[in-house]
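Question: Now follow the chain.
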Amino acid sequence: MLMEVKNQIKVMFLSLKYNIMRQMTNKVTFITNIVFMILNNASFIIQWIILFSLKNEIGGYTIKEVILLWGMAASVFGLSRILFNKAFELSELIINGKLDTFLVQPKNVFLSVISSETKISAIGDLIYGYICLLLYGITIKNVILFTFFTAIGAVILTSFVSIMGSLSFWIVKGDIIADSLSNIMINFATYPGNIFKGIVKILLYTIIPVGVSNYMTVDIILNFNLVNFFYIVIFAIVILLLAFYIFNRGLKRYSSSNLMNSRI
C-alpha cells in the first residue's frame, strides 16, 4: 500500500516536471505569463488601498492583514492550479467522455486526471502569495505556517472543485454548478471573513469551505490557535477522502466517448 502511494506521488511529480518543461520551450511566453499574473494580482490591492484610505479597518482587518489574506488566497489557488489544474476542468472531461485515456493506465485514475495538466500562470499566483507575506512581515513562524496552510488550502480547494466537478457523473449540465460554486469559493477568498454574517457565513464555513481554507488559516497566522489548527487539518483530510469517494462512485456511471487519444 505504501509503495503504491509512493509510486503515485512520484508519477504525479514527474507529470508536473514534464508539463513545466513543455511550457518552458518558449521561455518568453513562460516568463511573461508568470509576470503578468503577478501584476494582475497586484492591481487588485490598489482597490483595497483606496478603501483603507477612507477607513482604518474593514471587518476587523487592517491593510496589512488584507494583504496577508490576498497572499494566502493567491498561493492556495496557485499551488492548486500548478499541481492539479485538471480538477478545475473535471466536469468538461466527464461530460465529453474524455477520461478514456486515464482508465487504461495502471495508476490511480482520480490523481492521474487532476494532475495531468499544469497552469503556468499559476506560478505567478504562488510567487505573489509570498510577496504578500513579505509585505506583511517575514518571520520563521510566519513562513512555516504560511507554507503549510498553502498546501492544506490547496488540498481543500482541489478537493472541493473535484467534488463539484464529479457531480457531472449524475447531473446534466453539472459543469454550470461546478463552475459557479468554484468561482464563488475563489472570489470570496479575498474578502475578510468577518464582513459576512448569518447564513452566508455558515455556507462559507461548510458547503463552500473558503472559511476553512483561507479565513481560519490567516487567523491562525495572526493568532495561533491549536484547536483550529487541528480542525483545519482534519477537515482537509475528510474533504480529500470525500473527493476520492465521490469521483470513484461516479466513475462507475461513466460513459466513454470512444475517443482514440493517448497520453504518455
Remarks:
- The two ends are 24 Å apart (CA to CA).
